[in-house]
Amino acid sequence: MNTHRTTATAARVLNQLRHDPRTIALMLLVPCLMLLLLRYVFDGSPATFDSIGASLLGIFPLITMFLVTSIATLRERTTGTLERLLAMPMAKGDLIAGYALAFGTVAIVQSLLATGLALWVLDLNVIGSAWLLLLVALLDALLGTALGLFVSAFAASEFQAVQFLPAVIFPQLLLCGLFTPRDRMAPALEAISNVLPMSYAVDGMNEVLGHTDLTATYLRDVLIVAGCTVLVLIVGAATLRRRTA
Asked: What's the pTM value of the predicted model, to 2 decimals?
């Protein structure tokens, strides 16, 4: 992988995003607005917000980054930009890494905004360190970016990219332990949830919610989420088509 080509790709994508205020607003503001809405939905029950707010602090950025990344990458394909780039002496890994770097930069800003809002404006009550919470939120956003890059290879239009949202994200949302503990699910569903990365993202958030110190379970969870992110990026680079069908 060539560092110069990767950073050049990231700079190009970030420059395009800079001229698209609606996409920037979607990535940076929507997770914050959803957290704000959630806080006042449970205005009469602050304990409920505390119990699920940390989990959704990671889930909202994941969903947003998945949606924006898949559509933006698909747009590059349908306009022919991706094909022209791959016709140059650029490895597919350079391209995927460049996109991941660009959207990952946005994910950092997004995670900082959402975590700061939840902790210091909406008074989300967590026992653990705010930095540990921020780390999981950031990894969740990066996971959403990686999944979006991956599924964009299998979509022929922006509409099809959106259709992957219920197929890829919603099952994880239902099985991640947000609505009921995973060990109380049917055995088959629990087994499926054990291999889904969002389950470990929620578990990591819950560790920060209930423990003052860094725990072995937290380390396991963040390593699994980070590992899944890297694995999906590698598979995405391997499946990236050089020509638009």
From this structure: 0.89
From CA 101, how far away is CA 77, in angstroms rounded?
A: 18
- Read off the amino acid at residue 39: R
Q: Are 190 and 108 in contact (CB under 8 A)?
A: no
Weakly modelled stretches of the chain, pLDDT under 70: 1, 82-83, 85-87, 89-90, 241-245
Say which DSSP state 183 is in: G
* Nearest one of 8, 224, 201, 226 to 97, comparing CA atoms: 8
**Joined tokens for residue 68:** 């924006």
Q: Which residues of 160-181 are buried (b: 16+ CB within 10 A; e: fewer)?
A: ebeebeeebbeebbbbbbbeee
Please write the tens of the pLDDT for every residue from 134-158: 999 999 999 999 999 898 878 877 7
Calculate the dihedral angle through the C-alpha atoms of 185, 189, 195, 197, rounding to the nearest 10 degrees.
-70
